[in-house]
Request: fold
Amino acid sequence: MIVFKLPLLISLITTVQSHSKQALKFHGYDTSSYIMIDPDMSPLEEAASVCMWIKKLTYDHHTGTIIHYRTARLPDVITISDNLRMAVLVYGHTSNTVRPAMLEWYHVCLTWSHDTQRVVVYHNGVETGSKTIPGDWKFIVKDGSLVLGQYHRTSLMQAYFSPRHPFKGEITKLNILKRELSAKEVDEMFISGICSDYENSLQDDIHLSWETLLSDETEKHGNVRPIDLSCPDHTHEPTKEKATTAGPTTKKSTTVGPTEESTGCADRWAILRLPDFYNKEVETGVLQDLENKTHSLEVFIGYEITDDLKALLLIQHCDTDYSDNCEQDWAFLYTPFFQNQKVTADMIKEMRRKWKLLAEFSDHVIDDALIAHLKKHHCTTES
Reply:
């Protein structure tokens, strides 16, 4: 497979205003979607920071790789995963204690300098983990490749990725800086909000810019695509709105207004965000798949939905060497409505009632609007 090599010019001097209002979406079904570049990382030898906003579209049990810089000498010079189980800079594996929520924007920064010999990870402006790197470690700048959206198995400019760690989600404002940001700067970046121009104040320090990654000169492989952000007028925390780009369609859409919803009931509709259902039309095949999953769970009435039960369902319904796609088919079991709950006849009855209700929306697309409508009008204290 041919890969694109980024021109030597890394930082763009002119800030493109529209780029601060755009994100990149990775569909993350396999290893076909990624960005690969071979930047000159020598300015980072003494200090570095990596910051971005992330929205993950998979549950916590799946580890999707957002950014991975690997060299011939070290496999993980920069590695950040969507659930922050991997937050590595200069081979310093931080002991991060936070697990970000699904479907919500959150802010992440990793900082390091040779002087402090300390890697720090920040989640939403707050330090949540760190690692001291003893000795004379410096940033490895030679013979490396940088990949977004996949975990790279080689330092060469070759599309050779781990099939278990593709990233499914959205990112924006990913910048690599050539100095260690202070805790105050990281906090200010977060408080300024996802659609602010705060990064403009750091232009002299940015080595690899978000504008460069968004530019047409940086090749996007597979189904990586830019999308527009939904920006509030002012914010002190990341927006929870989902960014979408509308296009012409003949499919039915659903209109919905603002709503207050029950968290428990909302969790019961989370299954509709799985790849097998999201952005699909409500039709016989989709409804049958939902019924099949309900029937498979019904067999275990009286049992708790533990990791052992989930593993058994995967063995029964996936190939022997099951893929992440099959694993994602059962990811709804990790939502609060199912996780560690006992399978009861009432739970199964409630699931079937919801699928019967969904059938009334035949030919509608299962999108954010439809899911919001279902939550608004069909989430009550009794349901």
User: Anything to note?
Assistant: The chain has a mean pLDDT of 79. The helical segments are 183-192, 210-214, 263-268, 284-298, 307-317, 324-329, 345-359, 368-377. The longest strand covers residues 47-56. DSSP finds eight helices and 14 strands in the chain.
